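[scheduler] slot 2 assigned
[scheduler] job type: sequence-to-structure, two independent chains
[scheduler] chain ordering preserved from manifest
[runner] begin chain α
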Amino acid sequence: MPKYLDFESFAGDEQYLNDLKAAKDSSDTDDSEKEELQNWINSVESRVISRKQEIYSKLTPFQAVQVARHIERPSTNDYIKLLCGDDFFELHGDREFGDDKAIVGGIGKIGNYSLMIIGHQKGHDTDENINRNFGMAHPEGYRKSLRLMHMAEHFKLPIITFIDTPGAFPGIGAEERGQSNAIAESLAEMSEIKVPIICFITGEGGSGGALALGLGDRIFMFEFSVYSVISAEGCAAILWDDPSKVEIAADSLKLRAKDLLEAGIIDGILPEPLGAAHRNYEAVAEEIRKCIFKELPCLNEISADELLIQRYKKFRSIGKYSIQGESNA
């Protein structure tokens, strides 16, 4: 049974709709009953669609956060399976400490493109989330990611990243092994990787843990994904010491795709099916495929040196600042 969020008031009707469809398909149902059921199905389905459209057209920022965190939302491995099929070979380890299961990566093929694909990996149930540390990477995860990016550069493979994490893991062990340094190295070295990098924020893009995979030539967000420097809960705790202000925090953070597009932080928004990505994996995977096929030919025509210059300018142009007379305003 699908997992519904508190604000999804169509849940009862949708479950009733599924029961009607099951009854219609039953071999015990005669033709007259099937016709009557079909009329009910059409009526209820129309009501469900209308309610979904109404709800998802008016999501609050914190409701968008809840959608982005949905446990059934597609993960990196889901996208890899749909986009690459059997044409993917996973690579493991950072060659220093171990293999972090919160980040997966390897060489895959999408259409005629051979690519290095790297992404955060959450789980679809409690056991898998524990195994994947809820998508929160340790330093070895970011070092693995960076190792694979350098491998991609060596073999001239474009890089695709999937971003979906609450943030880098904040535990003592991670700090002892150099968490902040691993993220800083990721940012510094991604800025100089001489192959195209396309980043997709597929769910929750949280803080430096997300940014460590997010320094690319093109950055896209799904319609109901979020991207921010801190979680809404963390923001509410720090600014007001009041968990009840989480919705105010979410609104203030401007963490939705449309806000980030307006700020020039991302390059585009990918649409999601009615009811969000977790309701149709194939549809959202196809949006990624189309985006890759559109962007990669253009990026592949740019020389390596020019690619780095454009990447530098892209990130220097974000925000407004003035340093020793230099301004980007």
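[runner] end chain α
[runner] begin chain β
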Amino acid sequence: MAFWNWNIGLAFLISVAFTGVLIPQILLISFRKKLFDQPDARKIHHNVVPRLGGIAFMPVAVFTIAFLLGVSLLLGNDSILAALRGEVLEFAFGMCALILLYLVGIADDLIGVQYRAKFMVQILCAVLLVTSGVWVNNLYGLFGIHELPRAVGWPLTVFVVVFIINAVNLIDGIDGLASGLSGVALFFYGMVFIGMERYMYAMLAFVTLGALVSFFYYNVFGNAEKHKKIFMGDTGSLTIGIILSFLCVSLARSGGVGVARATAETFVWAFVPLLVPCFDVVRVVLHRARNRQPLFLPDMNHIHHKLLRAGLPQRQAMITILLCSIVLVTANVLLCQVVNINLLLVGDVVLWTGVNMWLSRFIARREAAQGQG
């Protein structure tokens, strides 16, 4: 246990340092080659900002885990290798999915990729995870459903993975929001997997978190006028999305620690860190469908856009959403021990809907008052 805690902590620090070294180099290349995210009417920033920060995420994660594996073997300690036994197929296919989406993200950030092509690659990546054994095999009483046959669980998992990837991608609208929400989820997953003694999953979570910590600094506190600010771009959001979906589904199918009550709890733990981006996507899609708008057309109706319209500065809006995520995670983790999983979901939906309805009314009153003034 102590060995693993030390290694996971070291992996986190290596990831923070490595990403901190890479991002300035990415900034330098971006400005030399004029690889910018240009401001437009839909975007909040007013200066040219490179959007290739996510290029650092996958190499940092792979290097850090491989480096620690190699060092441990050189020192005669095969604990990391032993932890991979039984999970080699999952991590091998997971790595394939990660690399595929990473390459698609780079192509999209540099030359653009049609959303249909991105969807096809996302589906392929989800199929890779399912083929490796990472699939939702039990709903633990959600909607009255328990064990799932493969004919249902496999397509459901493909949908869940693609949904999570796009939820992370779409929530990336203001500085620090996607990385902050993902960081909350990764920290939670890492701690849960440590508690379950599934250390390779915990290491993956904390290595990815370390990359996001350094990125968050440049994204939120970097000065665009001094060429110190960077966005993660589609490379980053797709990379983080597939890692989060891999961790989420792996936890959802874990079966807990051998007791029936624990299985329902781990199922809640798997999805609750992603409630904010997932609920936001559902609300936006329903809004577009109700107004007969294209479902995949970018708009300014996400939760962060609404908070900005309500008068909050960008950084305060980001902090507010992160706090909401932390509160939702904490409340659900505590309540799932005493509240039925279905009632918990209904409560989350009612709360999210109520907050959004109140926020919409507040924005309408505010904009009406501004129009009269």
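[runner] end chain β
[qc] chain β: DSSP finds 14 helices and two strands in the chain.
[scheduler] slot 2 released
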